[in-house]
Amino acid sequence: MTPERLLSELIRLDTTNPPGNESDLAFYLKTLFDEAGIPNEIIAPAEGRGSFIARLGRRGKKRLLFLAHSDVVPPGEGWDFAPFSGEIREGMVYGRGALDCKSLLAAQAFCLLQLAREQFPLQGELIFAATADEERGGALGIKHLLHRYPEKLQADFAVNEGAELPIDLGKQRVYFLQVGEKGTAWTRLTARGRSCHGSVPSLGDNAVVKLARAVAGLGEYRSPVKLVPEVKYLLQELARIRGLEIPVREENIDQLLESLDLEHGFTETLRAMTRLTASPNVSGGGSRVNVVPDLATAEVDVRILPGQDRDYVLRELRSVVGEELEMEITEYREPSFTSAATEYYRLLEQTLRETAGEGVLCLPMISAGSTDSKHLRAAGIPAYGIAPLAPGADPELRTTIHGCNERIDIASLHFMVKFLDSLARRYLG
Ligand SMILES: [Zn+2]
């Protein structure tokens, strides 16, 4: 079995969430791991929603966790090939999950199977978890595992998905290690007024107009810059590569971002790493064209950095929308963070540089979105996100994640295996 064949088989098991059906994939792994003599189990909090956990090595001081999720998002329309074909041709593996996240899952599984076949003497435990339900928040996957069986995922640190794909800046190839994820503070704004007939509107107090002012204010709003040390370092290194003399300070970040002259999507990703964002994405009010409305609401997608919290969100939004509107945080999820100043981060960095070639650079980053890592970090387990594609991988691949025509080159898959294998041998050898 090659890594690409394994990935192909995993893609063919349709684990679109909802409904998930991750147990099909868990049982497929179970057969492989049973044959290899690696202790494993399936934990399913609901029918068909199994997560798979395997443990290689022996109980010792050291424990390393390989984590990947087994569900995928619905494929949607517009594909040039069947989304669950798992076809292998012209050096690529095709299908939903090829990047997010079945390639990492296949590489991790392959790595354990390979170490077991070799009977490599591990001085500790290599734990592998393929979790269900990540794409819908993890309640039936990692959250359930951490809540019911916290000891099963206990590890010194975890390697999961979550980093930006590598980029090339001139001759410099840059890899990323994800050390944090922004939190969510979805907020509802409510404007109240006084209803009256629309023919004499000055008799009333129009809630839609009040809300519109607040929404327009949020559209213009730029929140204060906050530099997490890891992000400051990232920006300093990018400036250095570009030969810029601009110091990295809170007050000149936007100028720096422009001067870096990066691809637009990446510039905006960096901007989101430096501040709270607030996007009013749903709004409504009023019921009839001839009635002045007394109620209007908007839903604002607010994302916060490590170190920012509910109070900060309410304070910032209040400063934009004024005193009159009601504000309520309807859904809140803490930001998550693992320091880059650890021996684990250094080991990851070193291993990545050795796998990719000494010339590459490895930089920390924070994601605007989130993965299962947030739950691990909340449980006190350091987690790092990777995206170790091979040098030369097509940068266009990033647009296929959660989009159409998802695929990965076989060279990148092998690169992932090599990286993970060397990490496991170094840490547990
Ligand atoms: Zn994912």
Describe what this molecule looks like in 3D.
With 429 residues, this protein is an alpha+beta fold. Helix 1 packs across helix 3 and helix 10 crosses helix 12 (410-428). The chain has three domains: 3-177 and 337-428, Zn peptidases (Aminopeptidase, 3-Layer(aba) Sandwich), CATH 3.40.630.10; 183-224 and 278-334, Alpha-Beta Plaits (2-Layer Sandwich), CATH 3.30.70; 225-274, no CATH class. The chain has twelve helices and 19 strands. Strands 1-2-6-3-7-18 form a six-stranded mixed β-sheet. The chain has helices spanning 3-12, 22-35, 102-118, 142-148, 207-220, 229-241, 253-260, 264-272, 310-321, 343-356, 373-378, 410-428, and strands at residues 40-43, 51-57, 62-69, 88-89, 92-94, 124-131, 157-160, 167-169, 172-181, 183-192, 196-197, 277-285, 291-292, 295-304, 326-333, 336-337, 361-367, 383-385, 407-409. The mean pLDDT is 96. The structure holds zinc ion.
Which tags fit this structure?
429 residues, Alpha-Beta Plaits, binds zinc ion, Aminopeptidase, 33% helix, 4-stranded mixed beta sheet, 19 strands, 6-stranded mixed beta sheet, alpha+beta, 3 domains
Name the poorly predicted regions: none
Mind telling me which CATH architecture of the largest domain this is? 3-Layer(aba) Sandwich
Multimerization status: single chain
For the record, the CATH class of the largest domain is: Alpha Beta
The shape, in one word, is globular
Bound molecules: zinc ion
**Radius of gyration, whole Å:** 24 Å
Strand content: 15-25%
Biggest sheet, spatial arrangement of strands = 1-2-6-3-7-18
Number of helices: 12
Assigned CATH superfamily of the largest domain: Zn peptidases
Bin the helical content. Answer: 25-40%
Mean pLDDT equals 96
Number of strands: 19
End-to-end distance, in Å? 24 Å
Backbone structural class: alpha+beta
The major β-sheet equals: 6 strands, mixed
Q: What do we call the CATH topology of the largest domain?
A: Aminopeptidase
Q: Any idea how many domains?
A: 3
